[in-house]
Sequence to fold (135 residues):
Amino acid sequence: MKVTKVLTFVPVVTFSHRRREGVTTGSCKQIEINNQNTITMNKHDLIIALSERLSLPQTECLRIVNAWQQVIEERLVENDRIILQGFGTFSPWVQVERDGRNPRTGEPCVIAPRISVKFRPGKYLLQALNPEEDK
Fold:
């Protein structure tokens, strides 16, 4: 059995076909958003869903997802925006140095600057998430 290194990117996606009377399958976790039970999809669940939808082996789907992650990461490291028309835009942004507090001790500390990522959902993703607002 070949072991593949897996990156720790965990997208949060909800899908209703895995919800059965409050029981979740696989490694999905049930969470509550806006008083509605939803299921958190992790990378493994995404690979299974892609495999079923595309009729491809899970190993091939894993290669596709890993390649997609690497392409996104490389472009963000180069300070480029990634625009997926209708889905959304990933863009890097710099968090400036700021004062903070250690939550355990209450001591003041400085939070170092870092680069983070923002995601802005696209028009069609927002329409899919909010179908009642289309009217």
